[in-house]
């Protein structure tokens, strides 16, 4: 064999070696990203399993066309939740958190909603409420369509 054949073989071998290294790096990074996504999904599912809420009571009054409401929600799960990240839907309409007052077991200004504590949400809506739905930050919901007018 001459130098041309040996040189060509070395160049081809070097190209295959570089391509294999690049392929290994790509496959390794992709596998790592998939494993991270699986771990994140498992953590999210565990949080959902450990979250439980119960809308214990909803009261409202008719105040000349506006309806002040008190919504009491008990944290029945084992996970501490965020009071400010809890969403409220009244008659299937999202209610802005800035339009409500939230207290946990009588303490206002706290965001920590621990297990077995009750969150009180006070808000005013324009239409007579028929149904209330509460959604936690990780998507667990409970609703109450038995509203009491006081």
UniProtKB/TrEMBL annotation:
Out of the domains of life, which is the source? Archaea
Q: Which Pfam families match?
A: Flagellin_arch-type
InterPro entries named among the record's database cross-references: Flagellin_arc-type (IPR002774)
Per its record, what are the GO molecular function terms? structural molecule activity
GO biological process annotation, one example: archaeal or bacterial-type flagellum-dependent cell motility
List the PANTHER family: ARCHAEAL FLAGELLA-RELATED PROTEIN F (PTHR42200:SF2), ARCHAEAL FLAGELLA-RELATED PROTEIN F-RELATED (PTHR42200)
The protein's name in its UniProt record? Fla cluster protein FlaF
